[in-house]
Amino acid sequence: MIDNACQLIRADVLKLRRRHGLIALAISLAVGAVAVIFAVDAIRHASNPLHVAPAGGVRNFDNATDFLALIGIVVAAMIGATAGAGDAEAGVLRDLVASGRSRLALFGSRATAASGLTLCLLACGLLVAAVCSLTLAGSLQAPSLAHIAQRDAGVLALGATATLVAVGGATFARSRGPVIAVVIALGVIVSQLLLHIGFLGDLRAVLPLAAFGRIAGDTTPGLHVSLGVAIGVIAAWALAALGAGGWWARRVEV
Amino acid sequence: MNNTSSDGRAPAVRTTGLTKSYGERKALDGVDLEVPRGVAFGFLGPNGAGKTTIIRLLLGLAWPSAGSMSVLGFRVPHEREKALARVGAIIDEPRFHGHLSGLQNLELNAAVRGGGARARIPAALERVGLGARAGERVGAYSLGMRQRLGIARCLLADPELLILDEPMNGLDPAGMLEFRRLIREFVNEGRTVFLSSHLLDEVQRTCDSAAIVDQGRIVVQGPIATLTSGPRKIAVGSDDPARAATLLAHLDGVQSVTVNDTGLELSVAANGTTDRQLVTAIVQHMLGAGLAIDRVAPAEATLEEQFLNLTTKIEEQR
To answer: Rg (Cα) of chain B, in Å, rounded?
Structure first.
C-alpha cells in the first residue's frame, strides 16, 4: 500500500518535473533571484567597500528570507495550482478516476508532490541565502545556525501552506490561471496590506504572513501572537485547504 | 433478472432502475440494462440520449439519482475500487498529458493502477503498434495514434471489461478497420467490450449484442441477429420498376411491394413460401412479361432501420 502511494506521488512529481517552463521559472525565482541579489550586493561592496556594506550578515539574511517568503508564495501558487488542475486541464482526470483508485488518494498524492517540490526549491533558495550570508558577512555579524533554522522554518511553513491552498483551490476550480492569480494576490498583496492596517489589531494573527513573521522571529507593530498560535494558524490554513480540496475531489462529478 | 449469467458469473454490467437527474431534467430514466460477459455489446443512441451519462455512472465519475448498478459483479459506487480494477475505459476522445511521451503517460496510469500494470506497458504498446513511437511527446500524436494509446492504457488493467465511448470518432477507414479487428480480438480472448456509438453500421459489423437508448430509456436490447430480424425482404432490380411492381404485387407469398431508388423491395409473407420458390416465380413472371432483371437478392434488415423504426415510434407516442 505504501509502495503504491509512493508510486503515485512519484508519478505526480514526474508530471510537474516535465513541465520545463514551470520548473525553470520556479528555480529562477526561488534560487536564481536570491543568488542574483547577493551577487549584486557583493559586487557593489567589492567595488566600493568603504561606503557599501558586505553582502552577507544577519540583516541581509533576514532580507533574503523575507523576499523568499513572498517569492515562495508565488512559486507555491504556480506549482500547487499546476498540480491541482493539471490532470483536469489535460482531460485525464476522468481516466484516473475511472481506474478505480480512491479520489482522496489521487488528491493526497497531488498535494504531497506539489508540497515536496515547492519545499525542495525553497530549501535550495534558503541554502543559497544561508551560504551567501555566512561567507559574505565580512565585518558584519554572521547569522547563527539557530537563527537560520528559525527563519527557514517560517519560509518553509508558509510555502507549504500556500502550496496546499493552491492545490485545494485548483482542485475546485479545475483551472490553473485564476488560482495562481488569487493565491498571489491574497498571499502577497492583500495580506501585506492587511498586515499594515493597525486598527485590525490581533485579528491579523489569522494571516499566514503574520504567522510566518512570528515563526521567523519578526515583530509586527501592535500585533501580539504567541509561537503556538502562529503554528496553529499555519496548520489551520493547511488543514482547511486539504480538507476542502479533499472533500471536493471526493464528491465532484467529472 | 437473474443474479448470474449462464456461465455462473455475474453479468459484466447490470443496471436496475438507473436514473440520473440534472434538476428537473432526467438524463436517464429507470434504465434496466444487462451486458453479458464475453461479448461485444453495442450501446446505441442518438446524441444526447444518455449513452455517456450511463458510462460516467458505471465508472464512478458521477452519482446516480436512483437505482442500482454493478460492474463485474461489484456494486458501484460502493465497491467502485474492486469493480474498476479490471475495467479499461476510453471516455469520449482519449486524453493525455501532451507534454509527456506516450510511454510516460502509460507509466503515470500504471502508477495510479498499481499492481502489475507497469509490467504490462511494453506488451500493451506493442499490441497497438506504438512500440517504436512510445518515446515521442503525445502532443505530436495523430488522433489515430492517441486512440491506439488509449487502448494501450486500457490494457494496463488486463481488463475483463472494456468500456469504449465513441472510440471510432474521427478515425479514417483503415483506423476503423483496425479498431474493429482489435475489438473482435478482445472478445475472442474472453473480454467483454461495451461499445457506445452512434455509428450503427459499425456496431452491426462489430458487436454480438446491442441496446438502443433514447431519451434516457432503453428502447430495446438483445443479440444483433434478433434486433435486425423482421419480415423477410427481397430486393429486385429491373429496367421498369413501376411495371414490375404491379406485376409482382399479385405474386403468391408477396405481402407488399415498395419502389425505391435502387429498384423494388418485396416484403415476403410468412406463409411457408421458400425463398427459392419465390425467386423462381419472380424471375419467371418478369421474363414472361419481357422485363429485364438486374438483380434478385435478399434485402437484409439493418440495425439502422430498426433504430430509426424504434426511435420514430417513441417520437410518435409523445
So the answer is: 24
Residue B269's pLDDT is: 76
Q: Which helix (H) or strand (E) holds B236?
A: strand B233-238
Q: Please state which of the ranges A159-163, A170-174, B120-124, B227-231 shows the lowest mean pLDDT.
A: B227-231
Chain A interface residues facing chain B, Cβ-Cβ under 8 Å? Answer: 4, 7-8, 10-11, 14-15, 18-19, 86, 90-92, 94-102, 106, 253-254
Residue B107: give its domain's CATH number. Answer: 3.40.50.300
Q: How far apart are CA B60 and CA A102, in angstroms?
A: 10
Give the range of the structural domain holding residue B264, as residue numbers without chain letter: 233-300
pLDDT band at A4 (very low <50, low <70, confident <90, very high): confident
CB B128 within 8 A of CB B94: no
Residue B90's DSSP bridge partners are B164
- Same structural domain for residues B80 and B153? yes
Using a CB cutoff of 8 Å and minimum separation of 24, what contacts does B44-48 make? B44/B196, B44/B197, B44/B198, B44/B200, B44/B203, B44/B210, B44/B211, B44/B212, B44/B213, B44/B303, B44/B307, B45/B198, B45/B212, B45/B213, B45/B214, B46/B198, B46/B214, B46/B311, B47/B198
Residue B204 and residue B115 in one domain: yes
* Contact state of A106 with B112 under an 8 Å Cβ cutoff: yes
- Report the number of distinct structural domains present in chain B: 2
Q: What pLDDT is attached to residue B256?
A: 85
Q: Both B277 and B259 in a single domain?
A: yes
In this complex, the residue of A8, A86, A95 whose CB is nearest that of residue B153 is A95
Element (H, E) at A46: helix A33-47
Residues A92, B95: C-beta atoms closer than 8 Å:
yes
| Inside any domain, residue B4 | no
A80–chain B nearest CA distance, Å: 17
CA angle B198, B203, B206 (to 5 degrees): 150
Indicate if B187 and B257 belong to the same structural domain. Answer: no
Please indicate whether, in this complex, the C-beta atoms of A95 and B108 are within 8 angstroms of each other: no
Of B209, B228, B247, the residue that ends a domain is B228
> Quick check: bond before B77 cis, omega within 30?
yes
Measured at the alpha carbon of residue B215, what is the angle toward residues B212 and B220, in degrees to the nearest 5? 25
* CB nearest A100 (choices: B56, B85, B91): B85
CB contact under 8 A, B100 and A11: no
Q: What confidence tens digit (pLDDT) does each residue in B198-217 have?
A: 888 888 889 999 999 988 89
Q: Please, where are the H alpha helices in A48-196? A: 58-90, 93-97, 103-135, 145-173, 176-184, 191-195
Probe site for chain B from A3, A18, A82, A95 (most B CB atoms < 10 A):
A95
Are B53 and B20 a contacting pair, CB within 8 Å? yes
Spell out which residues of chain A touch residue B83, defining contact as CB-CB under 8 Å: 100
Closest partner residue to B112 (CB to CB) among A14, A101, A253 is A101
Residue B162's identity, in one-letter code, is L
The identity of residue A5, as a single letter, is A
The mean pLDDT of B52-60, rounded to a whole number, is 94
